[in-house]
Design brief:
The protein has 672 residues and is α+β, with helices and mostly antiparallel strands. 25% of the residues lie in helices and 22% in strands. The strands form 7 sheets. Strands 5, 8, 9, 10, 11 and 12 form a 6-stranded antiparallel beta sheet that branches. Strands 17, 18, 19, 20, 21 and 24 form a 6-stranded antiparallel beta sheet that branches. It has a 5-stranded antiparallel beta sheet with strand order 16-26-25-22-23. A hairpin with a 2-residue loop joins strand 11 and strand 12. The chain starts with a strand and ends in a 6-residue tail after the last strand.
Length: 672
């Protein structure tokens, strides 16, 4: 079936357009020039921008060192081993293989650029694949990107609590099980799995393509990389160790080339390696007179992680610093034997660096992954929950970027747009050879007006103007306004609308008013104030989507009194507002004001109820919001997509949304 990229409706494979929303299933829009491009095109024919959906393919034959087909047999995979009496120089054909196997494969001519990985001719090779230690790896173009895959179906079933089949003919191969078990929005370090299948003894897996991600080693070498950033990466590796160890995938941390950084300089893996003798391990980790790590029959210990860090220092020619020198020595000597001990020692290093203002390293989330349906690991969930008790390493963070976009729409049923929003930002960026920082201040206001002909429009606009002018006069420092100042601003906006009602002699339902949700950002600190049912959401990779405000309405008031939600919202007046700006004087309102820190990359979403009704964001956040955490996706297009989504599923009211993308990083101003 074909999944519509706009509304997620399931369509028959033969459809050219979505049966539900009419979106094209044969063309996509170029993100750069908005030209219609065939879905199977790698680049836009108009501007040359990359448009294709590309995956990283791994082809492996079951058994260690047995990727090659039997002698003389190519099969559909185009793989062959040397035939009888035919000798091959492994070192010449695979110069980069650290641990070559006797039967390493040789590619046949048909396994080349332009050929297909599968019989259905969906996945096309973009380069001639190269053998890597009994595997073939290459980038492939997805020529049918809207076609649902078996793995996507399994993951969808897991999210819905359904049980996926453990085994079935031509089903999920063994090498895909760890990826499926670890798939979670809370674990962006793990490459997303897209598709997998098994044909005989040949296993194929398609994962997120991270071949162009920056190497951790390259960043480790940079003079501008601070000690705090290095400590941050070390801590992330301890998180990954806890996550991967129950699945015997912690070998993934031993290959320096497998350690990559995303656009936010956060650690990620290019792929997963399991505990096998053909596992590729960086030569930097090998001691001259002892067996390479990972090839020993002994279980892998934290000594291996310490050697990874040593190799990074040695290869980058950076000098080890402070107490970390002793940590590395104790790891090598086996004095540090548990992750808890290691994190406690990293905490000591962080304290020595005198960067203890804000927590960036949190304990691993209790819910490491959804319950595995294909891979049964008895102790996996116990290990994940134990990680919550591990020490928290504390490092300061600073804002590295702040972007925003807003849009409002009248909807499909209203004649007037009573929503209004305002955005005001001040950004100062300093970039020096060994120090850089961003001093950012952002004010984001969203109001949903109500009351008589044109009344709501007047109220919402008056509130936005009043608040913007107030903070322009009273927010001139590099600190957030106090709670008293924020409340004073809200009361002032209420008074402006209230006096307008009095002047116009409005009464009853004719008295105009407005809801308010307002976000203030100063550096990595934030405050939210709200009155009514307009909302603020926050999206992070670790926690997913969270609603930060609680609606001021009758149903929620009853819930606060202890009434069950189903009963509270069965009342005919359940959605009637209990607070709004303007209809009454300030004694009738009590704005909620909360403060919080931005300690991880976050997407903030301010919305009127035309977008939040019917749990629209809770239903579609993974498709319409989660991609916007990345710089690769445009916020202007993202907010337009939200408006279109609301018009499709709601449309009964005005629709307004403001998106704010806040990125943070460890404080590079720490002493070296």
């Amino acid at each position: 079936m074909l999944i519509c990229p706009e509304c997620q409706f399931e369509n028959p494979n033969a459809n050219k357009f979505c049966q539900k929303c009419g979106a094209s299933l044969s063309y996509k829009v170029c993100p750069k020039c908005s030209t219609d491009v065939p879905v199977n095109a790698l680049q836009c024919h108009n501007c040359g921008a990359d448009c294709g959906t590309v995956w990283w393919a791994i082809v492996k034959k079951e058994g260690i060192g047995e990727l090659a087909a039997p002698s003389g047999d190519k099969g559909q995979w185009g793989l062959e081993a040397g035939g009888a009496g035919e000798e091959k120089n492994i070192d010449e054909e695979m110069p980069d293989a650290l641990f070559p196997m006797p039967n390493d494969p040789v590619l046949s001519p048909q396994f080349s650029v332009g050929s297909y990985l599968d019989q259905e001719q969906r996945y096309q090779f973009l380069a001639t694949p190269l053998p890597q230690n009994a595997e073939v790896c290459a980038r492939v173009l997805d020529c049918q990107p809207y076609q649902v895959s078996l793995v996507e179906t399994i993951l969808a079933n897991q999210r819905q609590g359904l049980i996926a089949p453990v085994t079935e003919p031509n089903g999920i191969p063994k090498i895909a099980e760890a990826y499926i078990s670890l798939q979670s929005p809370h674990h962006p370090e793990i490459p997303k799995i897209h598709d997998a299948w098994q044909d005989g003894d040949v296993q194929v897996i398609l994962i997120e393509d991270r071949s162009d991600w920056q190497s951790l080693l390259d960043s480790w070498k940079k003079e501008t990389t601070s000690s705090s950033q290095i400590l941050h990466w070390c801590y992330q590796m301890t998180q990954l160790w806890v996550l991967l160890e129950p699945l015997n995938c912690h070998y993934s941390l031993l290959d320096l080339s497998n350690l990559r950084l995303d656009e936010d300089q956060s650690l990620g893996l290019q792929r997963l390696y399991a505990e096998t003798r053909d596992n590729q391990i960086s030569s930097e980790l090998q001691e001259e007179e002892e067996e390479p790590l990972g090839l020993s029959a002994e279980p892998l210990t934290l000594k291996a992680l310490g050697r990874v860090w040593q190799a990074l220092f040695r290869s980058s020619q950076r000098t080890q610093f402070g107490l970390l020198i002793q940590v590395l020595d104790d790891l090598e000597q086996g004095t540090i034997q548990t992750i808890a001990q290691l994190r406690s020692r990293l905490q000591e290093v962080a304290t020595e660096l005198e960067v203890t203002t804000s927590p960036i390293f949190q304990p691993m989330e209790a819910e490491q992954t959804t319950s595995p349906t294909l891979l049964q690991v008895d102790d996996f969930e116990d290990s994940a929950s134990r990680a919550d008790d591990l020490p928290t390493v504390v490092l300061s963070v600073q804002l590295s970027s702040l972007e925003d976009a807003g849009c409002t729409d009248v909807g499909r049923q209203r004649q007037h747009n009573q929503d209004c929003f305002g955005i005001a930002t001040k950004i100062e960026k300093v970039d020096l050879p060994k120090n850089r920082f961003l001093q950012a201040q952002g004010l984001y206001i969203l109001c949903d007006g109500m009351g008589g002909h044109a009344g709501g429009e007047v109220a919402s606009e008056l509130a936005v103007q009043t608040l913007r002018q107030y903070f322009q006069e009273h927010w001139n420092t590099h600190q957030l306004p106090t709670e008293e100042i924020i409340r004073e601003a809200v009361y002032l906006a209420n008074e402006a609308i209230y006096q307008q009602n009095q002047q116009d002699a409005r009464s009853g339902v004719g008295r105009m008013g407005t809801t308010l949700v307002m976000l203030l950002i100063q550096g990595n600190q934030a405050a939210v104030a709200h009155v009514g049912d307009s909302r603020l959401y926050r999206l992070t990779r670790k926690r997913g989507l969270e609603q930060l405000t609680v609606d001021h309405e009758v149903g929620q008031r009853e819930i606060n009194k202890g009434v069950e939600a189903s009963i509270a919202y069965s009342r005919p007046d359940a959605y009637q507002l209990t607070q709004a700006l303007g209809p009454r004087d300030e004694s009738a309102i009590n704005p909620d004001v909360e403060f919080f820190d931005i300690n991880e990359d976050s997407l903030f979403i301010l919305v009127s109820d035309g977008l939040s009704d019917n749990d629209l964001l809770e239903t579609y956040w993974e498709t319409h919001l989660q991609p916007l955490l990345s710089f690769a996706n445009n916020l202007e297009q993202g907010v337009t997509g939200l408006i279109d989504l609301a018009n499709q599923y709601n449309g009964h009211d005005n629709i307004t949304a403001i998106l704010i993308r806040a990125k943070v990083r460890p404080n590079v101003g720490s002493k070296e």
